[in-house]
Amino acid sequence: MVLLLGSIDLLSQFASVSLLAVAAASPSLFARNNPPQPPCVYPYTKFVYSGCFADSVASRALPFKADLEFTNATIEQCTAYCKGNNYRYAGLEYYGQCFCGASVSAVVAPEVECNFPCNGDPTQACGGEDRVSIYQDPTFPDADDVAVSADFLSLGCYTEGDSGRSLDYSQWDYLNISAMTTEMCLTACGAKGFPFAGTEFGRECYCGVVLGNGTVNAESD
Prior knowledge:
Radius of gyration: 18 Å
Order of helices and strands: EEEHEEEEEEEHEE
Strand content: 25-35%
Keywords: Glycoprotein, Membrane, Signal, Transmembrane, Transmembrane helix
Subcellular location: Membrane
GO cellular component, one term: plasma membrane
Main location: membrane
Largest sheet: 5 strands, antiparallel
Helix content: under 10%
Distance between the termini: 26 Å
Membrane topology: Single-pass membrane protein
Oligomer: single chain
Structural class: mainly beta
């Protein structure tokens, strides 16, 4: 049975976060902690190029590195992997390192800096030194066009992480926090491909792929 947090009255008023997760056929709510899925082998809409972005080991533009053969890397190989694992974005860096993510956490870099040829196809560009060529799945709907709250299960009230945020991606820049509702937060996170959403302080919305930084269930104390 799908449980919903249905109103603003249920938002946390303290330093804890109400967490929700995308419902799935599997009994586990921690889908991103499961082993990665294989690349998509079925026909799908081609990813579109989004641009060249800055990247570094300390601050990844896309947080999830694909376990793919580096010496044969191509754009198609990387996008198929990210598509098969339900990510919105795919990125290639330094001749073919492949990364995936639900959102891009980086700034745009000059296009000329993404000029390294892909190991598997030298006619394709695979990023550069600390530069990643990012592609987007155009079939992901915009937040304004989809209602996804029925796809979320309530996980209850959780503490913030002891060394950082429980959920990494703030939606402050995208949502009207003065009119925040649970439905608004769920729609934004779900439309961007995040399996977790959380509300805090009555007006803050966060999204994430995993529960991080030592967060625990506050209701179990």
